[in-house]
Amino acid sequence: MSRQTVYVQHCSGVNGLEKIILREVRGFSAEIYLYGGQVISWKNDLGEELLFVSSKASFKPPNSIRGGIPICFPQFSIHGSLQQHGFARNRFWALDPNPPPFPTTSTNRAFIDLILRHSEDDAKNWPHRYEFRLRIALGPAGDLLMTSRIRNTNTDGKSFTFTFAYNTYFSVTDISEVRIEGLETLDYLDNLKNRERFTEQGDAITFESEVDKVYLRTPTKIAIIDHERKRTFVLRKDGLPDAVVWNPWDKKAKTISDLGDGEYKHMLCVQAACIENPITLKPGEEWKGRQEISPVPSSYCSGQLDPRKVLFTY
Ligand code: TA6
């Protein structure tokens, strides 16, 4: 396929929504909707889907799309004056005609630059001017790389403050057989207990009931181990100190209208985030937050977090 690889393809997706397909030479691919600036699919070289998208996902604006990687900005959760998880996931993003230069050491050509700017409507609830630039790329080994740059473009001299998350829905075979490594012994805020602060006890995180926790100041590498599929996702992050882990389990799942019966078993949200200490930007200042997710083979084990390469060479 290599000579004919179309690295970036523009086409229309569900309900005619505009989407972009990225492909890299080894066969990995990703699909991104301009609606939400949202990654909706990430497939490996065997064509296996690595992200979860609900069979009941609504691809009808202004609903957000249940699955893939929604962007939570300028507010994570309901804590603040805005709607749950802010508005970036419910807006139409544009192709960025003037992306900033990226330091790159590879010949990678499978990438797209998107931009979201303030609108009159949003200014009623969040009275700020900003430019949110998002680069989404497939690395040479198929890794999915996302870089967000948010700049305060206020002309009234005012700072603004925001929280943020890449709300990644990983596809897992059976949530009961999944383990997360990298969050043991950390402090977390429990969303199921009014955001009370606790310290994680014991070994790796496993799942047997509803979980909705914000782990604080985590390591930059987290591993999500899918025993049944013999696959591990390694999540690396930069500029995003926190990590949210969410699975609604059976009872809560039934209250979520755009989640199919039993689908909670096949999804796990692990979100690179900045929540505990919100970011404040003065006019002219820019913030950057990156995540890189890579599937690694089943032979992976603790302490061997992806020895193949250096982080963030793109
Ligand atoms: O990411 C955790 C969380 O805030 C949960 O509390 C849960 O509500 C989830 O997000 C999904 O939110 P959504 O608005 O997409 O239904």
UniProtKB/TrEMBL annotation:
MF-aspect GO terms: carbohydrate binding; glucose-6-phosphate 1-epimerase activity
Catalytic activity: alpha-D-glucose 6-phosphate = beta-D-glucose 6-phosphate
UniProt keyword annotations, A-Z: Isomerase
Cited InterPro entries: Aldose_1/G6P_1-epimerase, G6P_1-epimerase, Gal_mutarotase_sf_dom, GH-type_carb-bd
Source taxon at top rank: Eukaryota
Positions contributing to substrate binding: 66, 84, 89
A Pfam family this chain is assigned to: Aldose_epim
SUPFAM superfamilies: Galactose mutarotase-like
Family: Belongs to the glucose-6-phosphate 1-epimerase family.
Protein name: glucose-6-phosphate 1-epimerase
